[in-house]
Amino acid sequence: MTIWNLGSINIDKAYRLRHMPRPGETLAATGFHKGLGGKGANQSLAAARAGASVVHLGAAARADDWVVGRLTASGVDTTHIVRHHDQATGHAIILLDDEGENSIVIHGGANRTLQLDQFKSAIARMKGGDFLLMQNETNLQVELAQIAAKRSVRVVYSAAPFDIDALRAVLPHISIIAVNEGEAAQLTDLLGGDPDVEGMLITRGAEGAEYRDLRDDRHFQVPAFAVDVVDTTGAGDCFAGYFVASLDRDEDIPSALRLAAAAAALKVTRRGAGDAIPKLAEVEQFLAEQS
Questions:
Q1: Is residue 13 included in any domain, yes or no?
Q2: Carbohydrate kinase PfkB domain: which residues (predicted)?
């Protein structure tokens, strides 16, 4: 089957700091890195490197060929990435402290200019059994989710950056919601309980992850692997991409969670976001070395 991704594409500019700046404080960075990011691009890279057939639906500036090139080099179908002369590629300013934690500011740029008619040929190819990944970093979320759901495509929505109004609008068409622990707490508090969807994937950082099957009332958990953390940027996207790629191969939930947890563990040992996502062979080797 195919994993379609209505996904953001960002250029990440990461600054390493001794600690996060306090209000009014100016800090000198101890390091700088520019690379490929955006929750959408990260998830496409992760799913493709996990062995899935991935088609990315998005947009980037014509001047940033290297961005699209990195996706293509990892096996992502980039045919449906719209190229602009007059729109900047989305970008993110990432602050990383010595503990590996991060704070991020994003600018949507081309990610917020998408038009449905730009993806007519892709939509025509979607079929039952496929997956559609989405995140709250592009427009067209509701329109494409509605079309996908009518075609029996399972919609997996990463509710970040968290916005309850955006989530409510797309919620009727979602199969699986992917959130971190804080977002899950916000979601259940604002809705007064679990959402009416097939399942929730909740990543908990160093505490591992959980999948709640909301149809059969079953919970599956996986612990995090013990590694030396260098950079947590994009770890949740790596987890989500690997998890959906496993579901696409008809693997069971525990197997999908374990593979995704191993991929995320490897990712956080490396600097960067999309560029740091491991390939399937690396993840399998990592798992083989675990006791």
A1: no
A2: 7-279
| Whole-angstrom distance, CA of residue 186 vs CA of residue 274 | 27
Give the range of the structural domain holding residue 261, as residue numbers without chain letter: 2-6+39-88+112-288
Q: Would you say 272 is a known binding-site residue?
A: yes
Residue 52 resides in a domain: yes
Q: pLDDT tens digits, the chain, 291 residues: what are they?
A: 999 999 999 998 989 999 999 999 999 999 998 999 999 999 999 999 999 999 999 999 999 999 999 999 999 999 999 999 999 999 989 898 988 788 888 899 999 999 999 999 999 999 999 999 999 999 999 999 999 999 999 999 999 999 999 999 999 999 999 999 999 999 999 999 999 999 999 999 889 999 999 999 999 999 999 999 988 889 999 999 999 999 999 999 999 999 999 999 999 999 888 999 999 999 999 999 996
| 267 annotated to bind ligand | yes
Tokens of 148: 């996908």
In a domain, 131, yes or no: yes
DSSP for residue 251: -
Residue 211 maps to a domain: yes
Rounded Cα distance, 265 and 133, in Å? 22
User: Which one is catalytic: 237, 250, 252, 275?
Assistant: 237
- Report the alpha-carbon distance of residue 244 to residue 250 in Å, rounded: 10
* Structural domain count of the chain: 1
For the entire predicted model, the pTM comes to 0.92
Q: Is 163 a catalytic residue?
A: no
Beta bridge partners of residue 203, listed in sequence order: 180, 209
Q: Domain of 184: which CATH number?
A: 3.40.1190.20
35 labelled binding-site residue: no
User: 274 a known binding residue?
Assistant: no
